[in-house]
Each structure stands twice: as structure tokens, then as C-alpha cells.
């Protein structure tokens, strides 16, 4: 899904006035070529990510020198653990044809203030031993 926006944005940057009626005051094509990074969220295993995103990204010649970054990555399957994470990162490294700048794993700890499927995220859970407590924090409603 993110690839469609990346392609559309590329075309807007190349011809902002013709595509969206915008006349830039700066050299946006130059800034795009020198500094732009495409970012996406991926809640899929590496093989799926490779088949559904990486292969398609690499077929687009205008992305040859544009890095990609997975801003929220989590394959989201029950029982996922640190060993699985290490294996997945090694597997992602094998798909080196993508100029992948990196990934940010989502998320480090289970969000206990959330419910439903949101509890499926989080590599680590809290243990049974309480080591401290705080009083109510404004804005931290349950």
C-alpha cells in the first residue's frame, strides 16, 4: 500500500505545478534526490515484505538511489520472541537489493493501557514482580 503513495509523491516532486498546481520556491527535486527517504510501516514477515514490497520497489528505476525505511515493523504472529526477531533481521539482510536504511521494531513492550489486538504488539511483557508504582499521571487515562 505505501508504494502507491511513494510513486505518486515522486511524480508530484518532479512536476509539482503540472500535477497538483503548486509552484515551489525551492529546488524540491534536488532536495528529494539528495535527502529523501521513503518510509513505510510493515506488519508482515520478511518473505512477504520482500515479495510484496521489495521486488516491486526495485523494479522502479527512479527509486534506485532512494533509501527505504520501515518505520513500524512487526510480523505480528503469536509467540514471537527475541530469537524470531534476530532470525527475521538476518533474513531481511539477505534481501540486500533494497537500499534499506533500517527498521524500527514496533514495539518494545506490550502496551498494557490498550486492549484487543493492540495487546498483540510488544516483544517484552512485564513480569509478575512489582518493582515500584506511581500515582495518577495526567493524560494517562485507561
Structural summary, described in words:
With 142 residues, the protein is an alpha/beta fold. Helix content is 37%, strand content 13%. The chain contains five helices and three strands; from the N terminus they run αααβαβαβ. The chain has helices spanning 2-14, 16-20, 28-35, 46-58, 82-94; strands at 37-42, 67-73, 100-105. It has a three-stranded parallel sheet with strand order 1-2-3. β1, α4 (46-58) and β2 (67-73) form a beta-alpha-beta unit. The protein is extended. The model has no long low-confidence stretch (mean pLDDT 85).
Topology at a glance:
Elements: H1 2-14, H2 16-20, H3 28-35, E1 37-42, H4 46-58, E2 67-73, H5 82-94, E3 100-105
Parallel strand pairs: 1-2, 2-3
Characterize this entry briefly.
The chain has helices spanning 2-14, 16-20, 28-35, 46-58, 82-94, and strands at residues 37-42, 67-73, 100-105.
What is the mean pLDDT?
A: 85
Largest sheet: 3 strands, parallel
Query: How big is the Rg?
Result: 20 Å
Q: Alpha-carbon distance between the termini?
A: 32 Å
Runs in which pLDDT lies below 50 for 5 or more consecutive residues are none
User: Which structural class do you get from the secondary structure elements?
Assistant: alpha/beta
DSSP strand count = 3
| Share of helical residues | 25-40%
**What is the N-to-C order of secondary-structure elements (H for helix, E for strand)?**
HHHEHEHE
Instruction: Tell me the fraction of residues in β-strands, as a range.
Output: 5-15%
Number of helices: 5
Strand order of the largest sheet: 1-2-3
Q: Give the CA-based shape.
A: extended
Amino acid at each position: 500500500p505505501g508504494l502507491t503513495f511513494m510513486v505518486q509523491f515522486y511524480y508530484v516532486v518532479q512536476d509539482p505545478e503540472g500535477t497538483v498546481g503548486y509552484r515551489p520556491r525551492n529546488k524540491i527535486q534536488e532536495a528529494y534526490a539528495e535527502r529523501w527517504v521513503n518510509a513505510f510501516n510493515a506488519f508482515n514477515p520478511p518473505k512477504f515484505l520482500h515479495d510484496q514490497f521489495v521486488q516491486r520497489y526495485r523494479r522502479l528505476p527512479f527509486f534506485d538511489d532512494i533509501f527505504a525505511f520501515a518505520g513500524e515493523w512487526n510480523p505480528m504472529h503469536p509467540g514471537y520472541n527475541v530469537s524470531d526477531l534476530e532470525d527475521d533481521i538476518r533474513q531481511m539482510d539477505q534481501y540486500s537489493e533494497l537500499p534499506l536504511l533500517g527498521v524500527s521494531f514496533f514495539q518494545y513492550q506490550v502496551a498494557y493501557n490498550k486492549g484487543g489486538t493492540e495487546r498483540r504488539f510488544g516483544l517484552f511483557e512485564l513480569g509478575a514482580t512489582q518493582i515500584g508504582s506511581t500515582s495518577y499521571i495526567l493524560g494517562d487515562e485507561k
